[in-house]
């Protein structure tokens, strides 16, 4: 035999709070870095910052995301320092850097990590 407790008022409906009773969070102001970056973006794109946007960090972040430049197609290529270091390693080991490493930053990094002298 099992003992099961009963709660008489567990599923009774209580009055729900109305929107006026719920405290709305006050927006957090934007950081100085956000403001400076947004101002530089506004200058570059010849647009203006909306009024009052510096008082809301989330709105500022959305504005920055909408106005920042698209990433370059060359961001995936290895840096010149990576290429130089990889070529020095290849000379020391008397081998060659695989050609596909010159087209992908991640591949180049893994090749360097796997072949650098200990």
Write up what this structure looks like.
With 118 residues, the chain is mainly alpha-helical. Helices cover 42% and strands 0% of the residues. Among the domains are: 32-67, no CATH class; 80-115, no CATH class. Helix 1 (32-45) runs parallel beside helix 2 (57-67) and helix 3 (80-93) runs parallel beside helix 4. The model has no long low-confidence stretch (mean pLDDT 87).
The DSSP helix count reads 4
- Molecular shape: flat
Please state roughly what percent of the residues sit in beta strands, choosing from under 5%, 5-15%, 15-25%, 25-35%, 35-45% or over 45%: under 5%
- Order of SSEs: HHHH
Tell me the Rg in angstroms. Answer: 29 Å
Annotation, overall tally of beta strands: 0
| Biggest sheet descriptor | none
How would you state the average pLDDT, rounded? 87
Helix content: 40-55%
Structural class: mainly alpha
First-residue to last-residue Cα separation? 70 Å
The residue ranges in which pLDDT falls below 50 over 5 or more consecutive positions are none
